[in-house]
Amino acid sequence: MADKAQRKELLARYKQSRPEAGVYRIVNQRSHRVLIGSSPNLASARGKVDFARATKTPSALDHRLLTDARQLGLDVFQFEVLEVMDVAANATDAQIADDLSALEALWREKEDPALLY
């Protein structure tokens, strides 16, 4: 019985916790071009880049990076977290998406438009 209650408690805690949400950028180290993005799950966004490298699969990356990834290879890309967003416990997915969109726009303004993907 204790195992069942413990599993139920762990599952409830997992459902209440949220992954880190925020803004990231993927930098092409050779051309210095930058892709600014946001995600409600930064670990997942980083995981896509890691997966693309591990499997040598450029198509796992954002479509805007495909041409450079195929020409220059996947090792030229570096994933960086720019800002982790504080998410209120009662925030809805739509509110998080709106906040991320606004935060992403602010970070995009800081970059040279000529270097953005």
Could you describe the 3D structure shown?
This protein has 117 residues and is α+β, with helices and mostly antiparallel strands. The chain is built from 4 helices and 3 strands. It has helices spanning 2-16, 42-55, 66-72, 93-110; strands spanning 21-28, 34-39, 77-85. The chain has a 3-stranded antiparallel sheet, sandwiched between helices. A hairpin with a 5-residue loop joins β1 (21-28) and β2. The radius of gyration is 17 Å and the shape is flat. It starts with a helix and ends in a 7-residue tail after the last helix. The mean pLDDT is 93.
Regarding quaternary structure, how should these chains be classified?
A: single chain
The CATH superfamily name is GIY-YIG endonuclease
Q: In percent, how much strand structure appears in the residues?
A: 15-25%
Low-confidence stretches: none
Mean pLDDT: 93
Helix content: 40-55%
Structural class by helix and strand composition: alpha+beta
Radius of gyration: 17 Å
CATH architecture: 3-Layer(aba) Sandwich
Q: Tell me the number of strands.
A: 3
- The CA-CA distance between the termini, in Å, is 54 Å
General shape: flat
| Element pattern in H and E | HEEHHEH
Describe the sheet with the most strands: 3 strands, antiparallel
What fold name stands as the CATH topology? GIY-YIG endonuclease
List the helices and strands and how they pair.
Blueprint: H1 2-16, E1 21-28, E2 34-39, H2 42-55, H3 66-72, E3 77-85, H4 93-110
Antiparallel strand pairs: 1-2, 1-3
